[in-house]
C-alpha cells in the first residue's frame, strides 16, 4: 500500500514526540528517586509515638486539631543502588485506641540517604515519645510528658509542661523550659539546661554541664567535663572525672566531687561535702562542711543559715587553709599544721589559743584550739604543709 510523503512525515513526527515524552517521564521518575517528600494526616490522640529506623525528627505542638506530618528524604548518591534504597523507604501511620503511631523503615539498606520528619501535633497532647536509630531530634510546645531516644544525634527540647526523659548515644543536649522532672543522658556531649521546675538527673560521658535554674534538686555526673550550676533550690550532687565544678546558690545541702579540678560554691543552706584529687576548694556561706583536697588551697566561710549544723572538717595535704567565721556562729575549733617549719597559724579570735611543738632545727608541729561563742559543733582544720588563717567574717 502506497503511503504519501505527508503521511510518512506525520508518522515520524509522532514517533519522535513519543520518544521525547518517554524520556521526560524517565527523568521525572529518576528525580523522584533521588529526592522525595511524603505527607499525611491523623486524628488527634492523647499519646503520640514516633519510631524510625533512622532519621531526624522535628515535632512541634500548636493550635491545630489534627496530627500532620511530612517526610523529606534525600539520597547522597545518584547511582542505581542508592535509588533502589530510597525507593524502599516505607512510612506507616495509624491511630489505635488513644495512641497515634508514626513509623518508618528503609527496606533494603540504611546507607546513602537521610530523612527528616516534620510533625505537628495539638499542644495538649498528654505524652510524646520519639525513637530513632540515628538522627537529631527537636521537640517543642507540648503540655504533657516527652520521651526521646536516638542512637546518635543532638537533642533540643523546650516549652514542655510535663516530665522529660531523653537519651542520645553521643551528642549535645539542649533543654529550655521544663515544667516537670528532667532525666537525660548522652554518651559524650555537652548538656545545657535553662529552667526546670522539677528534679534533674543528668549524665554525660565526656562533656560539660551547664544549668541555669532547677527548683527541686539535681544529680549530675560528668565523665570528664566541667559542671556549672547557677541556682538550685533543693539538694545538689555533682561529680566529674576531671573538670572544674562551679556552683551558685544552693537551697539545700551539696555533695561535690572531682577527680582533679577546682571547686567553687557561692552559698548553700545545708551541709556541704567537697572532695578533689588535686585542686583548690572555695565555699562561701555554708553552715557546715567536710572538705578534702589532695593538693590545693581551701577557703570556707561559715554562717548561720537556719539549717542544722554538724561537725566540720577541712583538710589538705599541701596548701593553705583560710577559714571565715561569722560573729554569731558557735563552734569548737581544732587546727593543726603537721610540718610547721616556715608556716603559721593565725587567728582573729582571742579565744583560740595557738601552740607549737618541736625545736627550730627539726619538724615542728603547730596547733590551735578554742571555743567560739561558748563552743558548739567541732571544726577540725588540718594541713600537712601550709598556713592556717582563722578570720572573723564580715556580715
Written description of the protein model:
The protein has 395 residues and is mainly β. The chain has a domain at 34-135: Pectate Lyase C-like, CATH 2.160.20. The protein is 10% helix and 54% strand. The radius of gyration is 33 Å and the shape is elongated. The termini are far apart. Residues 6-36 and 79-86 have low confidence and may be disordered.
CATH topology of one domain: Pectate Lyase C-like
The dominant shape is elongated
In DSSP terms (H or I, runs of 4 or more residues), the helix count works out at 2
Proportion of helical residues: under 10%
Mean pLDDT: 87
* End-to-end C-alpha gap: 119 Å
State the total count of DSSP E strands: 35
Structural class: mainly beta
Q: Could you say what the CATH architecture of one domain is?
A: 3 Solenoid
The biggest beta sheet reads: 18 strands, mixed
Strand content: over 45%
CATH class of one domain: Mainly Beta
Rounded to an integer, what's the Rg over CA atoms? 33 Å
Enumerate the spans where pLDDT stays under 50 for 5 or more consecutive residues.
6-36, 79-86
Query: Which oligomerization state do the chains in this entry correspond to?
Result: single chain
Can you summarize this structure?
With 395 residues, this protein is mainly beta.
Amino acid at each position: 500500500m502506497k503511503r504519501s510523503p505527508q503521511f510518512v512525515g506525520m508518522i515520524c513526527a509522532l514517533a519522535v514526540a513519543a520518544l521525547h515524552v518517554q524520556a521526560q517521564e524517565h527523568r521525572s521518575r529518576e528525580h523522584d528517586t533521588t529526592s522525595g517528600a511524603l505527607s499525611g494526616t491523623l486524628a488527634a490522640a492523647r499519646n503520640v509515638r514516633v519510631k524510625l529506623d533512622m532519621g531526624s525528627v522535628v515535632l512541634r505542638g500548636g493550635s491545630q486539631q489534627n496530627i500532620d506530618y511530612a517526610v523529606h528524604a534525600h539520597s547522597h548518591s545518584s547511582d542505581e543502588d542508592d535509588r533502589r534504597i530510597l525507593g524502599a523507604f516505607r512510612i506507616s501511620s495509624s491511630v489505635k485506641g488513644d495512641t497515634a503511631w508514626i513509623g518508618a523503615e528503609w527496606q533494603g539498606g540504611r546507607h546513602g540517604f537521610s530523612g527528616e520528619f516534620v510533625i505537628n501535633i495539638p499542644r495538649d497532647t498528654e505524652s510524646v515519645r520519639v525513637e530513632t536509630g540515628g538522627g537529631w531530634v527537636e521537640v517543642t510546645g507540648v503540655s504533657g510528658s516527652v520521651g526521646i531516644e536516638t542512637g546518635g544525634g543532638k537533642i533540643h527540647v523546650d516549652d514542655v509542661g510535663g516530665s522529660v526523659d531523653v537519651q542520645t548515644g553521643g551528642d549535645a543536649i539542649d533543654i529550655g523550659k521544663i515544667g516537670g522532672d528532667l532525666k537525660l543522658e548522652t554518651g559524650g556531649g555537652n548538656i545545657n539546661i535553662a529552667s526546670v521546675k522539677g528534679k534533674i538527673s543528668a549524665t554525660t560521658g565526656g562533656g560539660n554541664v551547664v544549668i541555669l535554674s532547677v527548683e527541686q534538686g539535681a544529680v549530675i555526673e560528668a565523665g570528664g567535663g566541667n559542671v556549672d550550676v547557677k541556682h538550685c533550690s533543693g539538694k545538689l550532687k555533682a561529680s566529674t572525672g576531671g573538670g572544674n565544678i562551679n556552683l551558685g546558690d544552693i537551697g539545700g545541702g551539696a555533695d561535690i566531687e572531682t577527680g582533679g579540678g577546682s571547686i567553687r560554691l557561692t552559698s548553700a543552706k545545708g551541709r556541704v561535702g567537697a572532695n578533689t584529687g588535686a585542686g583548690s576548694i572555695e565555699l562561701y556561706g555554708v553552715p557546715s562542711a567536710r572538705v578534702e583536697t589532695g593538693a590545693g588551697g581551701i577557703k570556707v566561710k561559715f554562717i548561720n543559715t537556719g539549717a542544722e549544723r554538724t561537725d566540720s572538717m577541712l583538710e589538705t595535704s599541701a596548701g593553705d587553709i583560710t577559714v571565715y567565721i561569722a560573729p554569731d556562729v558557735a563552734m569548737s575549733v581544732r587546727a593543726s599544721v603537721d610540718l610547721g617549719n616556715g608556716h603559721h597559724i593565725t587567728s582573729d579570735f582571742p579565744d583560740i589559743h595557738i601552740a607549737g611543738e618541736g625545736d627550730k632545727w627539726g619538724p615542728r608541729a603547730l596547733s590551735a584550739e578554742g571555743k567560739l561563742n561558748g563552743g558548739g559543733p567541732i571544726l577540725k582544720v588540718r594541713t600537712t604543709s601550709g598556713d592556717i588563717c582563722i578570720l572573723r567574717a564580715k556580715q
